[in-house]
Amino acid sequence: MPVIEIRDVHKAYGPLQVIRGVSLTAPRGHVISLIGSSGSGKSTLLRCCNLLEDSQQGEILFEGEAVKWRGTGLARVPADRAQVTRLRTNLSMVFQQFNLWSHMTILQNVMEAPVHVLKRDPRQVEARARELLAKVGIGDKVDAWPAQLSGGQQQRAAIARALCMEPRALLLDEPTSALDPELQQEVVRVIKDLATEHRTMLLVTHDMRLAADVSDHVVFLHQGRIEEEGPPAQLFGAPRSERLRQFLSATMAE
Ligand SMILES: Nc1ncnc2c1ncn2[C@@H]1O[C@H](COP(=O)(O)OP(=O)(O)OP(=O)(O)O)[C@@H](O)[C@H]1O
User: Is the pTM higher than 0.90?
Assistant: First the structure.
């Protein structure tokens, strides 16, 4: 059973139609990358998957369980708060801007949600948090404040924080875009390691090399629709649509 499945999802911001009937499946252990021009709806689609954004039409299933809605159209909202919480904690998100809590140390950042939201045993969470911080290469930064870390280190702490929730999937929204090129590679390495471990991930990225390296499936969005999708070898090696060809040549020229 797929971790996430969305069927014919539509999303508008007022009169602006941003997602226009997208269906997507994230099987367990697969990495799905969303690529496309700025404004094509990649981040919005990701946020619809974990209900950070409400969609107006279509179905969203988490491990086969359909999200329950009430209302229709722009008034449609999830009907079951407990279901929303369950879905969000199981689909941990990593944001472009890291979003670490500045008043907490790195260790406290990683422990906060498992201890206070999931009510896990603090001693076990602490052991796991230390393990994860070591895994992402910042085991020596547990007592540092976020402001004392480089962007690459902060993003790796954010990934450890997401993993400490023991989610069923990670949703990564342009995790390297806010970083200088030399710091991007530290984060890329961590994402590649996670892909090797067959973590389920949905990744929005402008980094075509990263998408080519880690993805099982790549989705090219254009104006809120899937223009082309398939394995990375096909999308990057033999794109069928003219729009994708143009997008790739413009991206490579940057
Ligand atoms: N909260 C919002 N309110 C109104 N419009 C929004 C909002 N968030 C996004 N949009 C619009 O929705 C469209 C899709 O935005 P989205 O951020 O999903 O695109 P994207 O493909 O992720 O772009 P980028 O690569 O630049 O991050 C854009 O036209 C954007 O201006």
Answer: yes
